[in-house]
Amino acid sequence: MKFVEEIVVEEFLPTIRSQLAGELRERGLTQSEVAEVLGISQSAVSKYAHGDVATNDRIADDDRVQELVTRLGEGLSSGDMSPVQALVEIEVLVRDLESPGDLLATLHETSVPQLAEHDASFRVHDPESAVRSSERVRSSLRRGLRILENASGFAGLIPAVGSNLVACVPDAEDVDDVAGVPGRIFDVKGRATVPGEPEFGVSEHVATVLLAARRHGSDAAAAVNVRYDPALLDELAERGHDLAEFDESGDVASSVGAAVEDTPTATVLYQTGGEGIEPLTYVLGPDAEAVARTIRELL
Predict the structure, then answer these.
(1) Apex CA 63: angle with CA 110 and CA 12, to 5°?
(2) Which of 35, 52, 287, 298 sits between 20 and 30 A of 147, alpha carbons compared?
(3) In sequence order, what are the residues at sequence separation of 6 or more whose Cβ sits closer than 8 angstroms to the Cβ of residue 30?
């Protein structure tokens, strides 16, 4: 009898630690600094560096693992990511790889062949659990926020009311199912400033726009608001985005819904303002990273 958790401990963990240790060393961290970041001993770092720890080639060669190692190495070495944030992102990837038919599940079945012969639908972990869905959303938001923070010129797109990058769980029904930046993103001396970690239920306005669009046919799962600029809209249209205007002077949810029904493929929603209402543009997308990349490409 062997549990999938044993595969994680015996094969996945040594492999990703080895890769991360090598990545961090290549980025200039000392052996003691790597040990501190990874929460392991210097002797363990030395063993990883000299190849004295057995690793799994199938795990090491997986594109998702390699992409994560590169991203974590960049974030941890620069200080833009904390070890706790890195741990959460690794946990999210582990849960994905444990899904039926995926890498860790396959390795598990290889070590316990009887599992493959099991008649029932065998699911080691429920890939659609609420906890996992929430962590995926937060992880995607963190990556999207890093893209925006590092995008030169993004601060110039932040409206007076501030921007917010939001994303929702698959079955989102209300603002509590949408995560965003508490307090919004503001321009502080020409730099986009994110005041805190993503949380659920903290963005009523942008969340309302996203939810209204989804209720009326949009498949978007993330959105960001930026300042209104006709030139910006022209650029988005040239890049293949469908635009739809809505009226924010009335009920926002209803106005957004009507706009999306008229233009079901809209990925850019905008309103031109009114008395006491700042004109704004909303860019929608499948996830927070995609939305952030759309904004970065405009700069």
Answers:
(1) 45
(2) 35
(3) none
Q: Count of H helices and E strands in the chain?
A: 13, 9
Pairing of β 191-193 and β 165-168: unpaired
pLDDT of residue 48: 85
Mean pLDDT of 228-246: 97
Give percent of the chain above pLDDT 90: 66
Whether residue 119 is predicted with pLDDT greater than 50 in this model: the reply is: no
* Mean local confidence (pLDDT), 210-218: 97
Q: Which residues contact 116 (CB under 8 A, 6 or more apart)?
A: 109
Is the CB of residue 147 less than 8 Å from the CB of residue 154?
Answer: no
d(CA 263, CA 245): 9
Mean pLDDT computed over 256-264? 96
40-72 pLDDT, tens per residue? 888 888 888 888 888 999 999 999 999 999 999
Cα separation, 144 vs 166, whole angstroms: 9
The conformation of residue 166, written as its DSSP 8-state character, comes to E
Q: Is 265 exposed, middle or buried (0-12, 13-18, 19+ CB in 10 A)?
A: exposed
Residue 200 pairs with which residues in a beta bridge? 179
What's the pLDDT score for residue 135? 78
* The pTM of the whole model exceeds 0.85: no
Burial of 65 (0-12, 13-18, 19+ CB in 10 A): buried
Mean pLDDT, all residues of the chain:
89
Please name which of 202, 80, 195, 79 lies closest in space to residue 137, comparing C-alpha atoms. 202
Q: Which domains, from first to last, does the chain contain?
A: 4-127 (no CATH), 152-298 (3.40.225.10)
HSE-CB for 197 with a 13 A CA cutoff: 10
Task: Name the region of 262 (left: φ>0; alpha: ψ -120 to 50; beta: rest).
Answer: alpha
